[in-house]
Amino acid sequence: MAKLTIPREEYMFPGHMGCLGCGGVLAMRYVLKALGKRTIVSVPACCWAIMSGIFPNSCLSVPMVNTAFETTGASVSGIRAALDALGIKDVNVLGWAGDGGTLDIGIQALSGAVERGHDIIYVCYDNEAYMNTGIQRSSGTPEGAWTTTTPVGKTKAWKKGPKKNMVEIMVAHKIPYTATAAISYPEDLIKKVTKAKNIYGPKYIHIFSPCPTGWRMPPGKSVEIARLAVQTCAFPLYEIENGVYNITKKPKKKPLKDYLQMQGRFRHLPEEEIQKMQKDVDREWEILLKKEEFTKSL
Amino acid sequence: MFKGYKDLPEVPMTWDTTFVNITGSWRTVKPVLDPEKCTKCYICWKFCPEVAIIIDEELKEVPKIDYDHCKGCAICANECPKKAIEMVVESMEE
Amino acid sequence: MVKSVITGNYASSYGAKLARAQVIAAYPITPQTSVVEKIAEFVAEGTMDTQYIKVESEHSAMAACITASQTGARTFTATSAHGLTLMHEMLIWASGARTPVVMTNINRAMAPPWSVWADHLDSVAQRDTGWIQYYCESNQEVLDTIITAYKVSESREIMLPSMLTLDAFYLSHTYETVDIPDQDKVDKFLPPFDPLYKFDVEDPHLFGSLSFPHQFYMEWRYQIALSMERARDKILEIDKEFESMFGRSHGGLLDLYRCDGAEVVLIAAGTMASTIREVVDQLRDEGEKVGLARLRVFRPFPAKEIRELAEKIDVLGVLDRSYSFGYGGAFFAEIGGALYNHPDKPVLKNYVVGIGGRDVTPNTVRGIFENALSLQDRGLDKEIEWIELKEGGE
User: What global pTM score does this model have?
Assistant: First the structure.
């Protein structure tokens, strides 16, 4: 007799315009299961702004507001300030933006909002490119990926440079809680969001959300690829609470190649590039393990 | 719902849910659950991005697929530990 | 009611305090800084109950005001020049979302080169954003207009944001006597903000959504157009209400001074109107039939009042403290447009003055009047003239 490992209640309706296998949809579904109905969601320009609400329909049973692209941090600050002014308590204020709206155009407002210490939860659902506008690269695009603005061509014009580490930037702001999560481990995700819900102040959660359309892979593999990202340590699952690192999944490390070869966006990569990427992943993983050890010892 | 500027509420906002959209029409393949193989682990329900898998109150029955909304992404088939879900090509008539 | 000697900026702060703004999100910029500093003082001393968000840019200031308003709070902000223009995207958002934000803008010149002095381009360039625009002449007007602006903006038949402007330094930093009304009197005049739609976890909606061409983007924009039209009468109605309660009026949409029997009238906005009043009095004493029409409300544009005035006079001189390159001053352009189809048209000339804060002195105004008076006999000499421009060279 099975028991459900995640809360049963749904806050999302079917019939939204999300692509087949959309990781961003699963991310929202799980986050709302953790936060519940007393939640107001602020969504900037991104996939979620379009597929969730074509007039006159919305796919969520919580209040949502569309905002300008760069304003998520500012928008949630305004919502929380107004709730405080009106004496309305026990409402979660959730900022919900993609990697572009968080790492690039939205970074200023996010930095401002968390620095001011508002009681908000900010989720970046990371599909690693500007997917809504047609798969253009963002600073969240991993090194080596094909996108429409880093189309490999004959000059190896894939995305260069490492993925911008927003988690570390948030840790540098000294906020009470920062975490990574992935749609392949909903129990871990929900546990983290529940923890965040019960902490006062700015919380940041970075959710790995595969995009089968943009990553050039079959939609049915969406959860599997998110699992592989964690198992290869390409996307580690960890949390930082008041400066102390805690890795929540320590996998039996699989080779990065297993993760890369399932996605069309990495198909062009020569062997030496993959080896370099494996070295980078290994190094980052080692650093993370040491950070955990060090900060726990303080 | 609304006809024009005289009856349209002045703040742009939504009034209904997306449930009315029959996204099942997007499918080219459809999941078919074999009740013999199903162990009622409900992992398929857990991973469905369309909220198109329906589980019963008591958790006693095999999950049902909402074909009005299932887009045929195949995550359920991929994740099912017993391979109880098969993706079947849908004919034009269906 | 307390009579105080305060700056235009402080008049703004008191206005926001009396209006009981619940959320204020603002970013400092010269010469607005004392507005927000005074508000910070009120909050720190516990005399103002507001959530003051010290945002990290003006764009974020307006974004925060909009969502705060959508949550159901009365919002206020203040800015100037580069701050206002940085907010441009969000100004359009505020009116599109039908949020009655009220904002003070200190009219300041745009860079490069840097200039902190009075110039109207910043707010004039926002005329298409769907905001109601007031141009203030005195500190009293600033304080009073904040209060009346909320009542107009928040009324169910309007639901549009308002900005009121004041000239950099000439008004923002100049001390004038201001009657600061009693809080309970203002409370009687201005009830709490009660929007028709706001975020409610018991009644969830998506605010915004996506609209296809066939439905209903054009209709939503038309509703804003109708709202702006209704704002004309609403502003006058609220002005009258304010006058009966507080004993003061600031002239409605077009504030006429000694226009009865005038042959030559100058139209201007902001502090130069005060200077023009002085010169009108002098010239009237000298027997000249002159008057001033102060453009108090630029949006909605007072076309009816302009036409009524135009019928009675021979020459209309339009003073613009800004310029639309490749065309002319914005006030001149719009007044001309309003009079195009009107049968009774005066001679219409554009005087471009005070750009970058250049002082508009009584002598400057006298020179303009002399020129305008001369047009009565000889007709238009030059359609657009830049006043007291330094020529240099050969």
Answer: 0.97
